[in-house]
Specification:
The structure holds 2 protein chains of 2 kinds.
Chain A: H1 2-18, H2 22-32, H3 40-68, H4 72-76, H5 90-99, H6 101-132, H7 138-150, H8 153-167, H9 174-181, H10 188-201, H11 204-212, H12 217-228, H13 230-246, H14 249-256, H15 269-274, H16 276-287, H17 296-316, H18 318-322, H19 324-328
Helix pairs in contact in A: 3-17, 5-16, 5-17, 6-9, 6-10, 6-13, 10-13, 11-12
Chain B: H1 11-17, H2 19-46, E1 48-53, E2 57-62, H3 66-73, H4 78-108, H5 114-127, H6 130-139, H7 149-159, H8 162-173, H9 175-180, H10 183-194, H11 198-206, H12 211-222, H13 224-240, H14 245-255, H15 263-290, H16 295-335
Helix pairs in contact in B: 2-15, 4-8, 4-10, 4-13, 5-10, 7-8, 10-13, 13-15, 14-15
The chains are: A mainly alpha, B mainly alpha.
């Protein structure tokens, strides 16, 4: 190693003087890089690509934020592009009023939170069962697990709807709770696979040691495996809550129901965004002229409101989100 | 994976393994009750015409394959939308996968602010839900502002058949949405790239391989399973998003009250057709990406085959020689 460095140092001045046009060579080396070092040109290209794609990624979000603070006159004024003339928050006020923000927000937290908690518990149990025991028919069941992920939900949607209606759990939170107890919550298959992958990595010796000390099956699961699965639990929790939060179709079908929107029924922010225009116009007519009629800015403000809680959560827990896939080893083997 | 000879388990171990059923019991019940039973039911529905009667509840009337026939012969929307969906998915999957691969390779290099860039590229996973997407698309915030979409569209429509042209131009006009769908894929690729042994690249460099060659000969073959995983994930995701028009069509048909074309039965038949198409897409994708073997593997296989053949030939000759020798000795002994 040291030899090589010395050699280089000795060689360099010789190289520089040795032939004509050596500076061209050096420039090329600087821009395109050599075998040892990456060129500055390549670095610049990489950064330009990353920054421009990053901008494209953020563009809708920036657009949304900028539009949501504009007044109507800003919207019509062609000289106003990005920066609104004043920080105008009435859009948010109106949108929040139309969506009935605090109540809907509370509902959203309930609708996303309770099934998520159940999901974590059930998926961990099932994943542990798959990872730890070699019961007969395991491979077939694993195949069925993946199969149940691949079939489109539309195919089972109608009979499930009828089934829930017969059970009398439609239009209530139970329609989300019962499937998640049975390990069929939203994308539960992925979570089971994550736990399965994780519990396979827990050393068998640990469990055997616990067994010798007198722990039964459930005790060794609850006391040994669960505490070591903290990263997987966190990942499943985060993703589950995000997916439940963003699910509008099934939520509308099973939980909110066709009537939705009234004070007594549950509704989520995302669902109320889906029917935003209708909700807004009824709210505006009830308010008796206090709320201006709907425009793009108010729609953008409503969209912003519906994703704001998730955004805040994301910026607080960003590390856990971004490193999640590495840590659970979902791509392993 | 190599096949391992399984030792037969002892009775105690077997009994212990039965505990596995206890752990997966809730899921098993869910599978039976909420997946397999609805599958059968939905197939039954699709063969019936179901009328909601306020007094009798659901009234089923067996119709055979009528629903399916109506979908293909009489329904004005389904086939058109299916065509649109197919073209769009076939266009979008390579775009998303390639884009995710490029981004993850860029992120895997030695760059500053890696965490910040990852934060940006993962952001859409959090906020990209159906209604939000719809709102943004309505506003035209889904296309890159510097790109002149209308020109591209008009050029495309001149040169391509209409179905393909509209699909391609919709890819252009909603390009940000497509990029937004690739957050999870980027993470999966990134995790796979980080697991590649760096000594492979060093060895290739010593042998004089350029970055380009390293990419094609090392990176791509190593992450090939992940490409398949991402492609399948993308297809399933694209088929189930709220912005997909077929899904909305199915649900409107499901709740439509008009007796002519609607009801659970008809919608079930539609869902079955649609799922069949999705499954076929997934299978085609899997065959495309899995079926091809490495050239070295193929060569090695050929070589092994050749060797076996020669071995057989050698064996044959040896046997023949032995036989002849025996015969000769017999003859010799007889002569003697």
């Amino acid at each position: 190693m040291q030899d090589a460095i010395q050699k280089k140092q000795v060689k360099r001045p010789k190289n520089r003087l040795s032939y004509k046009g050596a500076w061209k060579d050096r420039l090329r080396k600087f821009v395109f890089g050599s075998k040892e070092k990456e060129g500055a040109g390549k670095q610049v290209v990489v950064y330009i690509l990353l920054i421009s794609i990053g901008f494209v990624y953020l563009y809708p979000l920036l657009y949304m934020i900028s539009k949501s603070f504009m007044t109507v006159s800003d919207l019509l004024d062609s000289s106003v592009q990005w920066l609104p003339t004043t920080a105008y928050i009435d859009n948010y006020k109106n949108a929040a009023r139309a969506m009935n923000f605090w109540k809907t927000f509370r509902d959203s937290v309930i609708i996303a939170g309770i099934p998520t908690l159940i999901n974590v518990v059930v998926c961990a149990t099932v994943g542990y069962g798959f990872a730890r025991y070699n019961f007969p028919g395991k491979n077939i069941l694993m195949g069925l697990l993946i199969f149940s992920f691949i079939i489109p939900p539309q195919i089972t949607m109608m009979p499930t709807y009828v089934f829930y209606t017969d059970l009398g759990i439609i239009d209530s939170l139970k329609a989300f709770i019962i499937p998640s107890i049975l390990g069929q919550g939203l994308k539960a298959q992925i979570f089971i696979l994550i736990f399965w992958q994780f519990f396979r990595q827990v050393p068998q010796a640990l469990i055997e040691a616990a067994k010798i000390d007198g722990a039964g099956h459930f005790k060794s699961f609850a006391r040994i495996s669960i505490p070591s699965a903290a990263p997987a639990i966190l990942v499943v929790f985060l993703f589950s809550i995000v997916w439940y939060w963003n699910e509008s179709y099934l939520t509308q079908l099973y939980v909110v129901g066709a009537t939705g929107g009234s004070e007594s029924t549950l509704s989520t922010l995302v669902v109320s965004l889906k029917t935003f225009e209708a909700t807004y116009s009824t709210a505006a007519s009830q308010s008796g002229g206090q709320m201006i009629s709907i425009n793009e800015n108010i729609k953008m403000a409503g969209t912003m409101l519906s994703i704001l809680p998730l955004l805040i959560m994301y910026f607080i827990l960003q590390r856990q989100f971004v490193e999640s896939v590495d840590r659970t080893g979902i791509t392993g083997e | 994976m190599k096949k391992q000879k399984k030792a037969k388990l002892g009775r105690l171990k077997r009994r212990e393994n039965m505990m596995g059923y206890v752990f997966i019991l809730p899921w098993l019940l869910g599978l039976l009750g909420l997946v397999i039973y609805p599958l059968f039911e939905s197939f039954k529905y699709s063969l019936n015409r179901i009328i909601m009667n306020p007094l009798l509840g659901r009234v089923m009337e067996f119709k055979g394959l009528d629903n399916y026939r109506n979908i293909f012969l009489e329904d004005p929307d389904f086939l058109v939308q299916l065509q649109g969906y197919l073209v769009q998915t076939i266009l979008a999957v390579p775009v998303i996968v390639a884009f995710a691969l490029i981004i993850s390779i860029l992120l895997n290099g030695k760059i500053r602010l890696k965490g910040f860039f990852r934060l940006i590229f993962f952001l859409p996973v959090i906020i990209a839900s159906g209604p939000v997407m719809t709102q943004l698309m309505d506003q035209g915030a889904a296309s890159i502002p510097m790109m002149d979409v209308t020109t591209i569209t008009s050029i495309l429509q001149e040169h391509l058949p209409k179905v393909i042209a509209t699909a391609v131009s919709s890819v252009f006009s909603n390009i940000i949405m497509l990029l937004w769908y690739s957050g999870v894929q980027i993470l999966i690729f990134l995790a796979a790239l980080q697991k590649i042994d760096s000594s492979l690249y060093e060895a290739a460099k010593i042998d004089g391989g350029s970055g380009w060659e390293c990419f094609w000969k090392i990176t791509i073959p190593t992450i090939k399973p992940m490409i398949l995983l991402n492609a399948v994930y993308t297809i399933i995701f694209m088929s189930n998003t709220d912005t997909n028009s077929i899904i909305n069509l199915i649900s409107t048909r499901m709740f439509s009250t008009s007796a002519s074309a609607g009801g659970y039965g008809y919608a079930s038949a539609m869902a079955w057709c649609y799922s069949l198409v999705v499954v076929i897409l997934v299978v085609i994708m899997a065959l495309l990406l899995v079926g091809r073997k490495d050239i070295y593997e193929r060569r090695a296989k050929k070589y092994r085959k050749e060797q076996k053949k020669q071995e057989k030939l050698a064996k044959k000759f040896r046997r023949r020689g032995e036989r002849n020798a025996r015969r000769n000795t017999k003859k010799a002994s007889k002569a003697a």
